[in-house]
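Homework help board

Subject: predicted structure for assignment chain

Our instructor gave us this sequence and asked us to write out the predicted structure in token form, then describe one feature. I got the tokens but I'm not sure how to describe them. Can anyone check?
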Amino acid sequence: MLGGNELESLFKQGRSERFDWLPEKTPEATIAENMVAMANTAGGQIMLGVAEDGELEDIADANNAIDRLIQAALDITPPLIIPVPQSTALNEKSVIVALIPAGMPSVYAYEGRYLKREDTKNLPLLPQELRRLMLERGELSYETQVHPTAKLDDLDWEKARDYVKNLRGTGDNDEKTILLQRGCLAQAGSDLRPTNAGILLFGKDPQQFIRCAEIAAVRFAGDTMTDKHNRQDIGGTLIDQIKRAETFMIDHLRKDVTLADTMARTETYEYPLEAARELVVNAVAHRDYSITGDTIRLFIYGNRMEVHSPGRLPGPMTLENLKDERFSRNPIIVQVLADMHFIERLGYGVDRVIELMRQQNMAEPSFTERSGGFTVTLQNRAQAVTEPEPETTEPPKSDEIIFDGTYLGQAINPRQESALKYLHKTNNTRITNSDLQQLFPDVHSETIRRDLVDLVNKDILIKMGQKRGSYYVLRRASTPDEDTSPPTETRDRSPNT
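My token output:
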């Protein structure tokens, strides 16, 4: 409950979506309507003992006023359970304040009317708004609904068999029986049909049936959204999306490569890779798939990474209780991902991300929620040290250039950044496929080749020589006397190069 100063400040600001006042003798029906509207929106506080014009009345019978507020809450369907209203003084006048918590677990109605709070008004929920709210609060389940057009043949049964084969304790049950038990199939009359969860997890082409069930992964050149970026739209099953999103992050997150005294090679990503992966898995597991106008957004900027998940926080979860509350919008999807060891059913993903960031001396993730969805942001700058570093006027060395994911205003991936750092060293005037392959021995040679060709297509490098004798140099490092026009076949800008 608010303290005296906070209450006075709120009262001076006037009525709003989350604060209203009513006269002491207000009918219980009107009180109940206000409570319903706030409970179905973002919660709020109702102050009893104030005239319509804002004049404080001074409550005559506090106990009776409290009883009427509680009774109004109990008359709601389902009964609204609120903290006991409190009697307090405001400008030396007695008022009663009832708190309607945010993140209520149900959708509420009074005498069959479902209301929402909009500014200072209580308005009826439109049918589509009511359905959305029921989905958000778990009273309807999108994932358990049978898809109206999908058939069993639309599932990839090879993937289903692989899933069942790796499950323990399934006995001799076949994949249809297991998927029915898991909720990926449902009985529709005399037929078995895929549910939305089944399509998302095992569909041959999930996006054919559930639009926007994909990830838009983008690496931007700087700290803002610009036209200079690398983008990949990631579709397929949810498992495919998680794997491909992780590959995208490995390819596009900057990383430092160091060699220890033992010549052991160590890579450090700009974010803990496990933390970044955890955010993607959480978004895939918990997003609202009934929203067809938005995708999961994995946006990597120069100074931060954002993972946006369509849909508000589900059920009783709020920004305030996010670290402690456990609630799943999609328990079927969560169960199958847990079976495949992508996620823990206990739901400690947020806690794990926070701990991983702390271990790297980096800022905790920040969380924001708007009507369109929920966003988690990681900052890639380590927390400031307590002691300032001494000032220096010594200029940076040529091999200490910071590219920050860009070069000459164009977005580059971490491997390309390493290639350019290699070329900026005093003794390196050229780089070959083999040179870059030695820096990234775990990356396929074709990927290495594409990275270098992409730098040629961006007019950053020039390819010299032919076939096995070819190498790459910086375009700006070439002299006017050099023939810098490579043969036509080396400048193929086709994406298949």
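Reply (TA_rk): Your tokens look well-formed. For the description, you could write something like this. The radius of gyration is 29 Å. That's the kind of observation they're looking for.
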